Amino acid sequence: MTMWSIKKFDELSTKELYAILKERTDVFVVEQACPYPELDGKDFASYHLFKEQDGEIVAYLRVLPAGVSYDEASIGRVLVKQNYRGQGLAQQLLKKALRFLEDELHETTIKIQAQDYLRKFYGSFGFEVISETYLEDDIPHVDMLKKA
After folding, report:
1. Which of 55, 65, 79, 93 is most exposed by smallest CB count within 10 Å?
2. Torsion over CA of 63, 115, 60 and 83, rounded to 10 degrees?
3. Is 2-108 CATH 3.40.630.30?
4. How far apart (Å, rounded) are the C-alpha atoms in residues 81 and 66?
């Protein structure tokens, strides 16, 4: 069975939390060969948007309300499990997150820290680059902003 969910940290089951953290570690630490503090303390204040299929997390991001990472609301830890890429899940994920931010949290400005190679992808959702390219954990990033 496949379904989308968005939950606050305290609403996640232990199995959901474990599956989310496993996928985040697999993508951001192992696949990208980037040892960094994946557990940064922001999950408690975040909403977790994910698609589960047959007990696996196949797409995920976290929605950070204003004041958690930036003065503005934010989206982070965006991932699609490797063998599910190229199926449009990232677009669905972003659309759902933006709709949630605008309709449920009534946010009009969203700031993200994007890997530089994804600037065109995020640009297609209305995000604009607001910084020079910089290295974060040895990966080129840019800051981007979307205003409603």
Report:
1. 55
2. 170
3. yes
4. 27
